[in-house]
TrEMBL record:
Segments forming a coiled coil: 72-124
Compositional bias segments (type: Polar residues): 1-21
Biological source species: Photobacterium marinum
Sorted UniProt keywords: Coiled coil
UniProt-recorded name of the protein: Flagellin
Residue segments, region Disordered: 1-53
Amino acid sequence: MVNQITSSHNTLRSGDSTQADRVTKQHPVVAVPKVDEKQQKQQQQQHSNLAGQKQGSLLVQTSLAHRQAAQAQSAQKALQEAGDLLNQLRQMARRSLNAQENKKDQLQQTLHQLKNKLVKLTRESKYEDEPVLHHDLTPRLSEQPQQEGFSMKGLRLNTMRQQDEILRFQFDSGTPGTVQVRINNDENTTEIADKMSQAFAPRNIQVGVDKYGDLSFSVPKEQWPEIKKGVWMSGGGQILPAGNPVKAKLESHDKQAVEPQELEFGKPQSTRKALADIERMMQKIQQALSQMSKVQRQVSQDLERLVTTNTMKSGIVSNDGAIEASWLEAPENVSLQLMDNAVPTLLAQANASRHNVVALLEP
């Protein structure tokens, strides 16, 4: 599975200046930023959670593997259904370009119905009430968070600034609805990006500087459709125009990304464009299905490692293939019934029979 990536200050007392200079040359004094206590506690908690997860019981680890496998299977099924609908859309769109006038209305109606089914599938395909597809038909797995990179046109950062400026950003959807940041007149692009990242943090938007020296934005992929609905900008006349807000031009870095709801079949020109988009979407689905297969194989390998590396005695697997979990105390959020159902399923995915598991566990 894809791994989730989730100082001291020395001073010298006054005294022997020669000794102090010698010490300073050997060990230069470096000012280290003060660590925020709250942030330090959060980092300690994260390290504690990770350590606990690594040392956790077989029950906990197997439960996680079960969830990963089931989520990937749900995404795989949804992608296959999406591929079938896209194939039908492609056939109908081709027919509509060559159809007689008296048959075009019926084909248009069919195209509209298929498109609505695809949009509904994208939004409603879920596992444990969590969507398994993104807006552009890419798989949405909790263990593999994805970012949507985008640019925001209209920010004038290369002009001479004579005074500080307050930038305001208003969002058509989501909360908070307004974000503002004060930019000092002597701050460079990197400093501006850092300030904007702090201001946009409530919207989970990160701001950086790309290789061309321009601001680059990113947001969790599942939140991109909400951001894309509209952002309005205003300022003091230097970086952004003063007065009434102007709508920002947002462009995704993925130029090939297409959403099912963007497909249009009303005119021959739009239908030809939709056919090209459908081809790209079908290619993306094939890549995603290959990715899901890799996820499934990785889960099986992880499970096999759990079985072979855990220091367990033979006899924990009963005659009917179920795991005898009474030998280990289960955590509060993991029921024995869940493990009794989940573990045999995963063992089957790993091609590990009960007899093979017992053989592996025997000293």
